[in-house]
């Protein structure tokens, strides 16, 4: 499984959850050449199983570069916690993949790496809330500033993706969330995921950085409200 976190999470998602996907037609925005960005709400460490595993199934993978012919629709560059490199199994899976490691307290190096990826016409995947300190509803929370800055740096489609309710899979600390998720193998919860309409570059071109942040936050919250209604 070295360099194949997308493949690993796809198989894990199949074992642990039943995922209902809505709005697949909006993924076409990622199929054009050039930079692109995905923004996803973050409620628990194990929601990555749902989002990244499902995107892999749909042809958008975080696996490392393919050798020879590639059957994926697109390779993604997610910004993920550098803690993944601290655990032997996780390190083996993510090493060589497209994941951009970020420190919870200093995201400058991750921001620079994301800028480079976009300059290279890649698709960056962001969890803009930056942590999983959820509220009682697990609704989208305020964003950290890096995502809006990236959005203003390039003319590109930005695709909001929302899920509800991944807390059924696991919540709390990292260890507790993982143990809860693994216990679901005999009773897989149904989780809904919605791929929202893309935000086009023209929609935010004239907005300030703060207004861009507010606009994108609202679009992700709108997607979350829609997917919540399915649950």
> Which CATH class applies here?
Alpha Beta
Helix content: 25-40%
The N- and C-terminal alpha carbons lie at a distance of 33 Å
* Total number of strands: 8
Characterize the structure shown.
- With 231 residues, the protein is of the alpha/beta class.
- The protein has one domain (5-230): Glycerol-3-phosphate (1)-acyltransferase (3-Layer(aba) Sandwich).
- It has helices at 5-16, 47-57, 88-94, 108-119, 146-153, 174-183, 201-204, 209-230, and strands at 18-22, 36-40, 60-61, 74-81, 100-102, 123-126, 158-164, 190-195.
- Strands 1, 2, 3, 4, 5, 6, 7 and 8 form an 8-stranded mixed beta sheet that branches.
- α1 (5-16) packs across α2 (47-57) and α5 (146-153) packs across α8.
- It is globular.
- It starts with a helix and ends with a helix.
- The mean pLDDT is 85.
Features:
231 residues; alpha/beta; Glycerol-3-phosphate (1)-acyltransferase; eight-stranded mixed beta sheet; 8 strands; globular
Element layout with pairings:
Elements: H1 5-16, E1 18-22, E2 36-40, H2 47-57, E3 60-61, E4 74-81, H3 88-94, E5 100-102, H4 108-119, E6 123-126, H5 146-153, E7 158-164, H6 174-183, E8 190-195, H7 201-204, H8 209-230
Parallel strand pairs: 1-8, 2-6, 2-7, 3-4, 4-5, 4-6
Antiparallel strand pairs: 7-8
Helix pairs in contact: 1-2, 5-8
């Amino acid at each position: 499984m070295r360099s194949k976190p997308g493949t690993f999470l796809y198989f894990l998602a199949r074992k642990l959850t039943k995922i209902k996907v809505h709005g697949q037609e909006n993924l076409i925005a990622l199929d054009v050449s050039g930079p692109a960005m995905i923004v996803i709400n973050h409620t628990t460490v194990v929601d990555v199983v749902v989002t990244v595993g499902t995107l892999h199934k749909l042809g958008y993978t975080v696996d490392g570069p393919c050798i020879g012919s590639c059957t994926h629709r697109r390779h993604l560059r997610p910004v993920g916690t550098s803690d993944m490199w601290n655990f032997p199994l996780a390190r083996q899976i993510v090493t060589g993949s497209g994941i951009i490691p970020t420190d919870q307290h200093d995201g400058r190096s991750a921001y620079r790496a994301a800028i480079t990826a976009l300059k290279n016409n890649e698709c960056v995947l962001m969890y803009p809330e930056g942590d999983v300190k959820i509220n009682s509803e697990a609704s989208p929370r305020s964003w950290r500033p890096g995502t809006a800055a990236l959005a203003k740096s390039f003319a590109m489609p930005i695709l909001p993706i929302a899920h509800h309710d991944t807390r059924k899979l696991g919540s709390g600390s990292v260890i507790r969330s993982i143990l809860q998720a693994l216990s679901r193998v005999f009773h897989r919860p149904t989780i809904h995921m919605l791929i929202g309409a893309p935000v086009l570059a023209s929609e935010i071109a004239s907005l300030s950085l703060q207004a861009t942040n507010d606009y994108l936050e609202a679009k992700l919250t709108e997607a979350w409200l829609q997917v919540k209604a399915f649950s």
